[in-house]
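Consortium newsletter contribution from the modelling node. Members have asked for a concrete example of what our holo predictions look like. Here is one, prepared for the 2-acetamido-2-deoxy-beta-D-glucopyranose complex that several groups have been discussing at recent meetings.
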Amino acid sequence: MRVLSSLIALGAITASATAQKVIPMSFSRAGPQHKGPERRSSTFSQQINNNLTGGGYFAEVALGTPPQNVTLILDTGSSDVWVLDSKADLCHSMALESKYGSCLSTYDSAQSSTFQSLDQEEFSIQYLDGSGASGVYIKDDLHVAGANVKALQVGLAQNTTINSGLLGVGFDTNVAASTIYQNIIDTFVNEGLIHTKAYSLYLNDLDAEIGTILFGGIDTQQFIGALKVVDIQPDPQSKIISSFTVLLDSLTVGSGANFLPQAIPVVLDSGTTLTYLPQTVAIEIYSIVHAVDDTLNTGFVYVNCDIVSSLKNTTFDFQFGGNDGPIVKVPIHELVLDNVSEYVAQGLELPALPFAVENTCSFGINGLNGYYLLGDTFLRSAYVVYDLSQKQIALAQGNLNATKTNIVEITTTGIPIVSGVVSQEVSTPTKILGSASEATASTGTDALAPSQSTSDSPAVRVAPAMGWEATAVTLVAAFCSLTGATFLMF
Ligand SMILES: *[C@@H]1O[C@H](CO)[C@@H](O)[C@H](O)[C@H]1NC(C)=O
Ligand SMILES: *[C@@H]1O[C@H](CO)[C@@H](O)[C@H](O)[C@H]1NC(C)=O
Ligand SMILES: *[C@@H]1O[C@H](CO)[C@@H](O)[C@H](O)[C@H]1NC(C)=O
Ligand SMILES: *[C@@H]1O[C@H](CO)[C@@H](O)[C@H](O)[C@H]1NC(C)=O
Ligand SMILES: *[C@@H]1O[C@H](CO)[C@@H](O)[C@H](O)[C@H]1NC(C)=O
Ligand SMILES: *[C@@H]1O[C@H](CO)[C@@H](O)[C@H](O)[C@H]1NC(C)=O
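And here is the predicted structure:
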């Protein structure tokens, strides 16, 4: 497996000089996984899926004493932190690894002096794409973004079809355990690290490798205009507030009419790489971009890569919470994903397409019935503040490639009504993310953490993982054809 040169800089706790209770954490995006041509359909498709969809977002944390580094996928769609057991089935089977990808990093409880058993309390989690993990819950110390969280309950996956653990940051009402426990967000508040259960997520654009989650704060340099607040809706299935569901009122493309006859509930889910809208809406969008829907066969929707230039300046405008609600404009280039020609060379069979193979890209919006998700292809254009205590979400247009920082704390009174920058910062072409110092500077953690030095915020190399989509545990396998799982089945 190729080890990416993308880097993560861990921010340090900021209490020192600013006395602000915020925890900044950077994470990096998974990139291509070049394992060479591999004809087993599932392996092949996972590689494609990973690259075509832009991969997931990974955070580097450490578990136990002494700390064992683990790479976890950041997921707003689930609520447990879980790691791969060093004895997990996947990590000891070449057959399984070739199917699901090599284990990224594992944890060995026998090597940790702070490990606590929870008497075989069962851990079992299933994701929307049909993947899952099971094992037991344990407790150990988690080191995240410079904070040391004592005795956090985490899942220890012994049997898994996912080659990386997860950092689930959703509501505790959605944990996979039979009894609700204090999850990582609850624990941050209980230990006084942040004031309230809230954080901001800034994925940054498709070409940027580093995004940031800021626990307890908002960075006003990372968004444009006013942050506008909407209420989190009860989950359509469970009827309780357990997922980041908001009402999407309108979706327009360019100066066109609203595609939505009525507001629809959508889940803001960083663990899902694409955006899933009602099938009828998706079909209308496909006609605008001349897309070919091959989800039933190869699992992808294809478009001519040239639409990025032919529809230049076209944005897909998502409005939430009524006429005065927040609007996020997603430019066409954020929706047209990688050129597939390399995969065709490796054996991907495209359907008959009205455009040449070398001009074939995959498209970042898919159709679905019954359950709608705004994943990374939407979130990269947005700045999203999640307030789990007040059950509200604030959205604004992301100021991509932000180079400055200005942190405002989120307190128990709710998301502060603050404005961001006036317009998109013009990025300096010379600035290339990719080294620890640049990554730290560009995500602004240095300004927050005067005590930070290269030794206490070291850069971490992250290996890429298979692409997959994660969402709430309550979802059943009936949904599994909607994501990359289509691939796993042929
Ligand atoms: C679960 O994984 C263990 C190894 O960690 C293995 O012995 C066992 O057979 C696996 N169980 C299943 C159902 O795959
Ligand atoms: C796109 O926007 C840029 C800057 O606003 C403008 O210069 C250019 O003419 C626009 N292109 C098209 C095709 O409208
Ligand atoms: C795979 O994705 C990376 C960025 O994530 C991109 O640089 C690379 O060109 C892509 N490869 C193909 C074949 O599309
Ligand atoms: C797609 O990639 C191939 C090489 O992998 C290149 O020759 C071709 O120009 C690319 N097409 C586009 C539209 O980027
Ligand atoms: C952000 O930076 C990347 C390269 O690092 C560049 O490709 C992209 O166009 C920039 N985005 C904006 C909105 O300036
Ligand atoms: C764990 O990661 C840190 C950087 O975050 C690094 O300094 C350390 O060497 C790593 N430890 C191991 C055992 O890889």
